Hints:
Layout lengths: L1 H27 L4 H11 L1 H9 L11 H9 L5 H6 L6 H11 L1
Helix pairs in contact: 1-2, 1-3, 2-3
Keywords: Membrane, Transmembrane, Transmembrane helix
Amino acid sequence: MEDLTILFVIGAAGIALFGGFGSWVASQKGRQPVEGMMLGAVFGPLGVLIEALLPQGPGRNRPSKSSRSDFWSQPPEPTWLKEIDPTADSTENWLKELEKKR
C-alpha cells in the first residue's frame, strides 16, 4: 500500500510540473495556456515539446529580440521635460534654465 502512495505522489507531482510548464510555454507562444497545460499534463515532457514546436498563436504579437534591445540602447526622451520648457533639448539646458530663474 505504501508503494502505491509514493507512486501516486510522484505521478501527481509530474502532472502538476509538466502541466504548469506546458501552460507557461503556451502563454509565451501566444496560445491558450489551458492547451499547454493539458498537453503537458497528459503527455509529460513530450507534450511540452509539442507545445513548444507549435506555431506562434494569434493572440499575441511579440516583438523580436532586436526591437526590444533597441529600447535600451536609445531610451526615449522624457515627456515631462518638454512640458516644462519646450525649448529645452536636453537635461543640461533645462538645468541651466532652472538656475537662471533662481
